[in-house]
Amino acid sequence: MTHAAETTCTGIPSPKLGMWLFLASEVMFFTGLLGAYIVLRAGLPTWPHPGEELKIPLAALNTFILLSSSMTMALSVAAVHHADRAKAQLFLMLTIGLGTAFLGVKGYEYSLKFAHGHFPGTGIFWDCYFTLTGLHGLHVLAGIIANFWVLSLTFRPDFLKQRGHLVEISGLYWHFVDVVWIFLFPLVYLI
Amino acid sequence: MEAQAQPTYGKYLIIWIWLITLLAAGTFISTLPISKTEAVLLILGISLIKTALVALFYMHLKFERSVPLWAVVVFPFFLVGSAVLLVFSSRLFS
Which of A113, A135, A186, B77 is 20 to 30 A from A36, comparing alpha carbons? Predict the structure, then answer.
């Protein structure tokens, strides 16, 4: 892969090190949220059974979409490594499309809850559900915006030489968002 | 950046098939008539395997040889483990 990312004294390119440090802080952020969720849930005598309040097939579909978007993101990074700009753009667009589909399904799920009178503030279960999935959804939105920005850069003539590494950096963030959902899905919907 | 061995397109597809299979397995386990503890252990175990696949192959940690970067990756999990231990210490050591 050819690009102009500067390398730090650690031997790691600055943008890559910066992204990993950011992801480390994000791990702590989501751990705090999930920890609060587990403690709240364990402290309550009753909690809805899996599938009772939330639709598991819809969430499983969303998990399928997000896992697939991780693959297309990885394929885009691979295309950059092979200096194949067209494929890198195609897989980036697919990743953006799948991310948007994820948010679309999530929006549909929210609309179903709203129609039944379930909002944030209508009980601890719904507070936890909207907080966890809402904050994750915002992270997905941020990832889509980042991927859009990187996609816009791929049309520059010097992209592969000067900015190819940005696909990998954006990809690290996208995969992290996927990993968070890998834990949110079972904790909120299945268990 | 030094040249690193990277997975091929086919390898990424195989990882995706594993991820989807594990997703189906976790969802299926949630429907089985087993105890809550068994379900939690099995389903979260599957989540850990999925996370490892994404981190090692899609995030390229399998091919990462930089000790400082591994330190950045591992340190938060050390803190998470410590936090979990502190939160549940009253149950574990009572």
Answer: A113
**B76 contacts A27 by C-beta, under 8 angstroms:** yes
Out of B30, B47, B76, the one facing A27 most closely (by C-beta) is: B76
Q: Quick one: A35 exposed, middle or buried, by C-beta within 10 A (0-12, 13-18, 19+)?
A: middle
Interface residues of B toward A, Cβ cutoff 8 Å, are: 1, 6-9, 12-13, 15-16, 19-20, 23, 26-27, 29-30, 36, 39-40, 43-44, 46-47, 50-51, 54-55, 57-60, 66, 68-69, 72-73, 75-77, 79-80, 83-84, 87
> In this structure, which long-range contacts are made by residues A117-126, counting pairs with CB atoms below 8 Å and at least 24 apart in sequence?
A118/A53, A124/A40, A124/A44, A125/A47, A125/A48, A125/A53
Per-residue pLDDT, B3? 45
Closest-CA residue to A13 (of A3, A26, A25, A28): A3
- Tens digit of pLDDT for each residue in A109-167? 999 999 999 999 999 999 999 999 999 999 999 999 999 999 999 999 988 888 889 99
Interchain pair A67, B20: CB under 8 A: yes
- Tokens representing A21 are 């440090």
Ordered by where they begin, the domains of chain A are: 14-190 (1.20.120.80)
Token pair for A6: 């500067």
Structure confidence by residue, pLDDT tens digits, B4-43: 567 789 999 999 999 999 999 999 999 999 998 899 999 9
